[in-house]
Amino acid sequence: xxxPTRPATSWTSGIDFPNRLFETGGDDxxxxxxxxxxxxxxxxxxxxxxxxxxxxxxxxxxxxxxxxDDERDRQKTYHRRFRFPxxxxxxxxxxxxxxxxxxxxxPVETGAVTRGTEIEVQG
Length: 123
Fold this sequence. Notes:
The chain is mainly beta. The chain contains no helices and 7 strands.
């Protein structure tokens, strides 16, 4: 039996499913912490401002959007959840949508410390 000439790229190699079927879309946003706030930018081209909903719920930010194109008989949806490791001042959260990019600023509560437990990595 000959050895494979190309590396397997995923467990779906050899199956007729396109690899894009299993993509998570993880490169459509950027999240960082700077100057006592989290800044989240989400690329959402093709949506109108009225299509977008942003909701804060007990430490989780929900970003969703739905656009219906009646002329093409198509519907485009987006949904992603973000959990934050520090307490956020929810009444001061700001969101702005410009040129297909949603920017959300989430101020961190003064003196907030990172929540969670550090996990030891075994080698």
